[in-house]
Amino acid sequence: MRLFKAILLLMLVVSIIPTVMVGWLSVSHTRELLIRDAQELAQERVKQLRLKAERFLEDPTEMVVGLSSVPGGFFTLPRDTQRSHIAAVLNQRQEVLALTVFSADKQRQPGLQAFAVHDMAPSAVAEHEERARALLNAGLTGVRYSDVVASPGGGGPVVTLAFPVGDPVQGYMAADLTLAGLRLMLAQERVGSTGFAYLADRHGRLITGGGDLGAVGEDVSKRTPLAHLIKQREGTPDTELFHVGNFGEGRDAVVAAYSVLPEAGWAIVSEQPVEHAYRQVETMERRILAGLGGAILVALVLAAIFSRNLTQPLKTFMATSLELARGKFGVEVNLRQKNELGELAQTFNYMSKQLLAYDMETRGLYESLEKGYLETIVALANSIDSKDAYTRGHSQRVGDVAVEIGRELKLTERELRQLQYGGILHDIGKIGIVESILTKQSRLTDQEMATMREHPAIGDAIIGPVTFLGPVRACVRHHHERWDGTGYPDKLKGESIPLLARIVACADTFDACTSTRPYQKAMPLEKAMEILDNLSGAQLDPKVVLALRAVLAQRGVRLEGHRQPVKLAS
């Protein structure tokens, strides 16, 4: 304990105190510089995004507005020439989805409406015309944009623009522009590792952008940068706004910049969490650590001198404790120091020896208990077989075959032991069947068969109170269920039948085919497997049948009347 206090005090004096002092001074002097750098970066990013967005909107708008400047005047041209000009706009600018011409009294001109057939459903044309009329009825003196809506076809946000033609006004034109390209551009815009940029209208509704902000039209006015912009525009609605700074508090704090597209009135916003925007602090901290490396190195050397006599024994204790935790009881710590650590080593060694003695005693008790369990199970099975001389040894063979199948299916040792018990006890319920039915050598009547079919449920009830046989109950109750669901007692089907019960069922059927019964002679191995193959998929699990075939081909199983395992002919 004294050694620990000395090392702790030394580390505090030599390294931690000067590190904190120098680090605090360095951070306080450079934080403002780092914040200014991050904000300038956000400002430049928004400027570039605004230029891209304006260019994206201006190019198709200029193409559409150019129709009003065709030589001779658009409304004086022949109808076919007007259609050609409209089609040329749609062909040259993929952003233009629909274009409609209205007369001076705001009526749609017949034959002067076109839309991109592959990008715009006919049902959306009516919505386009409705938005255009709303713009016309609002009074137009120049190009004006509608609110952005979501494209019905999922192609991206759509905005409608309308403008008068001629002075005095000869008519009006309206066009739908898709903002899919703008959406792609903003989605690809990376603001650090977690930031994003987005576009919103003057009402604070989302137009498009990165991040998980929602669909087109989603209200994002509560986001702190956009809320600040809306408040600013309330006082100066026609002023070209630009701002950069920190918004929000705590985990919601962001470094953000925004600007306004004057023609459409849209806001372009860039956001990045404060904690990621100011990552330069990490660079500064690394420089501080490098500058204080010498002091820390001295502290570490001094600490190593004082802690050598402590750390080496601790490593030994850790390694030995790990061996003890892995079950290597009796392991000892070889430590000859005459201090508290030496006394601890002696106590540890005494504990390890005691654990070894207890472990050996426990293993002996467990082996005796398991042997007693197995002898009890075998005795129960023999009590069944003693009722019927033709089934003598059947339960033991079913258990042995089931274990071989389980081993082929890579089951655990615990599951293999459960298979052994389940195979031996699968017919335990026959204790409750009257001997006249059990030993009858002719065909059973329907009533007798119904009585015989009660033995799985009877067996389940017999072993139910025995706690350690809990996992075996499935083998006893369900070994007569069929893969196709027509078995008994619960008519389970397919993989709803427990795997151990499916394995016991296969082993039971196999032993029935290869044993001599009152109604049949033992079949050759090949004939028995042919029958099991026919039952595969109907009565038996195909996977289990394949595993049995693999066992018979590789190592064989013991059959009635054979001392050695019998294999399938290769």
From TrEMBL:
Pfam families: dCache_1, HAMP, HD_5. It is a multi-pass membrane protein. Gene3D superfamilies: HAMP domain in histidine kinase (1.10.8.500), Hypothetical protein af1432 (1.10.3210.10), PAS domain (3.30.450.20). Residues 308-360 form the HAMP domain. InterPro entries: dCache_1, HAMP_dom, HD/PDEase_dom, HD_GYP_dom. Residues 369-564 form the HD-GYP domain. This is HD domain-containing protein.
